[in-house]
Amino acid sequence: MTPRELRALCLSFEAAVEDFPFNPETSVFKVGGRLFALTDLHARPLRVNLKCDPEDAIRLRADHPGLIVPGWHMNKRHWNTVTADGGLPDRLVRELVEDSYDLVVAGLPRADRLRLDRP
């Protein structure tokens, strides 16, 4: 997955926005004001921090050692750092980004979820 594809994917979700609260290099993708993906789109290798169900996070790390690791500078129980530039199938990276978005949306207040027209 290229940086352009990753950015486009993150922004393809309902009400997703890109912000730069830390520095001009770090893209923070949010929904409802909450982070679902964090990356430096210019870094090589391309990595992205994504929210993950704790049980899935452990399984994914075991299944993809070195490519999916505990979230760098994040709560390691709930976040993974995913190497997104070719070591993993693009389909898996897309699913992990979507899962992160869905987990964040599920944690939003009900009124916000209803505005997004998602269950």
UniProtKB/TrEMBL annotation:
Keyword terms, alphabetized: DNA-binding
SUPFAM superfamilies, per the entry: YjbR-like
Signal peptide, first to last residue: none
Presence of the UniProt keyword 4Fe-4S in the record: no
Transmembrane domains' residue ranges: none
GO molecular function: DNA binding
Top-rank taxon: Bacteria
InterPro entries for the chain: YjbR, YjbR-like_sf, YjbR/MT2646/Rv2570-like
Protein name (Swiss-Prot/TrEMBL): MmcQ/YjbR family DNA-binding protein
Organism whose genome encodes this protein: Streptomyces prasinosporus
Upper lineage: Bacteria, Bacillati, Actinomycetota, Actinomycetes, Kitasatosporales
